[in-house]
Amino acid sequence: MASELDEMLTTFGERMRIVVAVDENDVDGLTLKPNGRERTRLSRHSGLVKVGNYDDDEFEVAKGALWALGGGLVDGAQYAPELRAPWVLRAAVASSMQGNPPGKVVMLPPLLGAEMFEVADERFDSLGELRDDFRRLAAAYLEDLNSHRHHGDVLAAIYLFSIRQEVVKEHLEREAIRDLTRAGLIRRDKAFSGDTVYVVRVPELFGFEVAARLAARLPRRVSKSADDAAKWIITACSRMPLGDAIGAHAISRAIHDLGGAGYLALINGLLKQPPRRQQLGAGARMVTLMPDHGLVDIEVGENGTLTLRSRAKHGAPVQVEVDDEDLTTMTSMDGWLILSQMREFRLAFVDHEEGLSNVAATLLLELGTCPMVLRRPSRDLEGFHTHEIDGRRCHASGTALRSPSCGRCQSSCSTTFPASTARPGFKPRPRATVRRSSIVSGWLSPISPGCRVRANGRPT
Hints:
Blueprint: H1 2-12, H2 27-31, H3 41-44, H4 56-68, E1 71-73, H5 86-97, E2 106-108, H6 115-123, H7 129-145, H8 151-156, E3 162-164, H9 165-171, H10 174-182, E4 186-190, E5 196-200, H11 203-224, H12 226-237, H13 243-253, H14 255-271, E6 276-279, E7 285-290, E8 294-300, E9 305-310, E10 318-321, E11 328-331, H15 334-340, E12 348-350, E13 356-358, H16 359-367, E14 382-389, E15 392-395, E16 401-406, E17 411-415, E18 435-441, E19 444-446, E20 453-454, E21 458-459
Parallel strand pairs: 1-2
Antiparallel strand pairs: 3-5, 4-5, 6-11, 7-8, 7-19, 8-9, 9-10, 12-13, 14-15, 14-18, 16-17, 20-21
Helix pairs in contact: 6-11, 7-9, 7-11, 11-12, 11-13, 11-14, 12-13, 12-14, 13-15
């Protein structure tokens, strides 16, 4: 292709207008000469535009186009990272909108959760031998997941599936690595530590293969100790992208081998690890990965101050005053995050009296008691306004009973009430004194090895 483009530019001159869509793995082959130092004619006379997942504006345009075709997304879909991938959105809505009668609108759920793995599996079911190599790459990833790595590598690996090159070469032959790269499934990159890594470019499909590996190991671990198995899958999933959905999908795949007793024991093991708040004491030191700033060191001072120092930019430290009550972290959230992704697995068990028990409904009622925003931190910093009414916290973007507009924030809030009060015709009346607070979501890691803290900030 490079020679053909060069010939076209030579023949037709500067008035020639060409738009070429290529995989990012092939960009250097079109823009650099074989020596790697000189640019090609195409590179000298063209601009490079990177096209990735939808940003906020593009996602709104996509929602408008979907509505014109007879489909809509429930409010809150803008927070689902899986729906920002164009191919995932197209593949997910296609099956739901088939046979949609004219004049009717199909409302789709605000997030796919574990369902995205089934969408990816169906989309890439014709990869053949490449799919086998991808499965072996998942085994390499799980092996590399437990290795000791640089702080920056650990934090970056929470957003991207990355495997060190030396580990990949232990599991895959050179030809297999080259084929996966050419197919656009992986790419080479440089980690914070300087190590060469391979980054997975189709995380939804890779998550499917990782979940399959975890599911194969679950029954044996649960047979020994369900509580230890719960801690094991929590630890593994907390270190990977899409970890909560992967954990839920792994459990669903293992249901047949677990059996009813093993499955319930594992669920109870996860429920025994509820989220909780923990105070950050003076002298605590952490590091976080912030957009456009790289690694930033954070230290808690004596008088409720946070000192921030950027490792990438040599500037003066920044001090931020924080109320003592806000110097808290949320810890042990991953177990309940996994359970929150299991809402789609509508399971019913028959008790001794031959009555049906809906496990999903019971789980949702229990998870609804969580006093914090039950959401996995994303790469970009996110803020969520919350209200505390009579000791209860409600989330403005949550799903619960709708209450009247709050006078202090001039916005509608959703309030979670005990199940006994959520009866037909019940209209909650929040008191006028409402405490407003913000929760900022992001990932942090302590300087001391063997531990990690996430902002909102959760030590694990």
